[in-house]
Amino acid sequence: MGVPSQPYTTVLQILKKSSNESSALIVTTEFLYKLWVQPILANQRDYLLLSLLDFITTERNRGVILDKLIYHIS
């Protein structure tokens, strides 16, 4: 499928390194909603979702982040 391009990759880098956990979860939750309602192919959506999850859990406690994300989404 290829590598995500700008400005998506810039946002991923910011979420990975520059933002605090709470901010990263808020941005991620909003992005997931907007991504879900877009008319794109399922494999493209999955690719963007998985790359986002990889970046927000890097150098953070993966289980804690995912639990908090599930809470935010619900």
Quick structural gist:
With 74 residues, the chain is mainly alpha-helical. Helices cover 74% and strands 0% of the residues. Helix 1 runs parallel beside helix 3 (42-57) and helix 2 packs antiparallel against helix 3.
Could you explain the architecture of this structure?
This protein is an all-alpha fold. It has one domain. Helices cover 74% and strands 0% of the residues. Helix 1 packs parallel to helix 3, helix 2 runs antiparallel to helix 3 and helix 2 packs across helix 4. It starts with 7 loop residues before the first helix and ends with a helix.
Features:
74 residues; mainly alpha; 74% helix; single chain; globular; 0% strand; 4 helices
Name the structural class.
mainly alpha
Helix and strand sequence? HHHH
Radius of gyration: 12 Å
Distance between the termini: 30 Å
Helix content: over 70%
Largest sheet: none
Average pLDDT, all residues? 85
> Can you count the helices?
4
Overall structural domain count = 1
Question: Spans of 5+ residues with little confidence (pLDDT < 50)?
Answer: none
What's the multimeric state?
single chain
Per DSSP, what share of the residues sits in E-state strands of 2 or more residues? under 5%
Question: In total, how many beta strands?
Answer: 0
Indicate the overall shape: globular
Write the layout of secondary structure elements.
Blueprint: H1 8-18, H2 21-36, H3 42-57, H4 62-73
Helix pairs in contact: 1-3, 2-3, 2-4
